[in-house]
């Protein structure tokens, strides 16, 4: 057992096993959001959302733990977090496009942004908050989609139909 522990420390260096679990959890939670997007045939799905969540968690872990003991100045861990937000915003902007008079991809872009925030939350070891955010995001994506489809769009269709029949 002692040999295993000493070999593990060689492989892991000064990285704790918790960091690996954080990446796994962030990828899984991001993937949950991506699965919903995949089910409704959107361009970004499980893999994209998993990578965004895991990448955001990795950047957050690096910003918090990666620069401990750096000599020669103060390191501000929020700088990396701020750049994650900007980078993911750029990625999300690439998901938004217009087709005719319709703008599409906004929900997918917002979902990618949320997946990154969940990843950052997991990277900061705020597990309950990250899990709650993932569950709440799924509720928003699924339940609100049903409301949108059944109530809002049917009313718009009804108004459009009655408006033209009145002319």
Write the topology of this structure:
Layout: H1 2-12, H2 17-39, H3 46-65, H4 78-93, E1 97-99, E2 102-104, H5 106-123, H6 127-166
Helix pairs in contact: 2-3, 2-5, 2-6, 3-4, 3-5, 4-5, 5-6
Description:
- This protein is mainly alpha-helical and 167 residues long.
- The chain is 77% helix and 4% strand.
- The chain has one domain.
- The protein has helices at residues 2-12, 17-39, 46-65, 78-93, 106-123, 127-166, and strands spanning 97-99, 102-104.
- The chain has a two-stranded antiparallel sheet.
- Strand 1 (97-99) and strand 2 form a beta hairpin.
- The mean pLDDT is 83.
Quick overview of this protein structure:
With 167 residues, this protein is mainly α. It is built from six helices and two strands.
Q: Sketch the major β-sheet.
A: 2 strands, antiparallel
Strand order of the largest sheet: 1-2
Total count of strands: 2
End-to-end C-alpha gap? 84 Å
Q: Can you tell me the number of structural domains?
A: 1
Catalogue the unreliable spans: none
Q: Helix fraction?
A: over 70%
Radius of gyration: 21 Å
Mean pLDDT: 83
Structural class: mainly alpha
Shape label:
elongated
Number of helices: 6
The topology string of helices and strands comes to HHHHEEHH
Question: β content, as a range?
Answer: under 5%
């Amino acid at each position: 057992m002692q040999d295993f522990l000493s070999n593990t420390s060689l492989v892991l260096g000064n990285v704790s096993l918790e960091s690996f679990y954080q990446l796994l959890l962030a990828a899984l939670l991001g993937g949950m959001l991506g699965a919903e997007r995949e089910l409704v045939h959107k361009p970004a799905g499980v893999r994209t959302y998993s990578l965004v969540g895991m990448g955001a968690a990795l950047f957050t872990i690096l910003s918090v733990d990666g620069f401990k003991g750096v000599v020669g100045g103060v390191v501000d861990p929020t700088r990396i977090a701020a750049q994650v937000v900007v980078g993911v915003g750029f990625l999300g902007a690439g998901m938004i496009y217009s087709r005719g008079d319709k703008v599409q991809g906004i929900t997918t872009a917002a979902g990618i942004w949320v997946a990154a925030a969940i990843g950052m939350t997991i990277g900061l070891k705020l597990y309950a908050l990250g899990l709650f955010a993932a569950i709440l995001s799924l509720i928003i994506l699924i339940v609100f989609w049903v409301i949108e489809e059944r109530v809002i769009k049917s009313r718009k269709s009804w108004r459009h139909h009655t408006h033209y029949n009145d002319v």
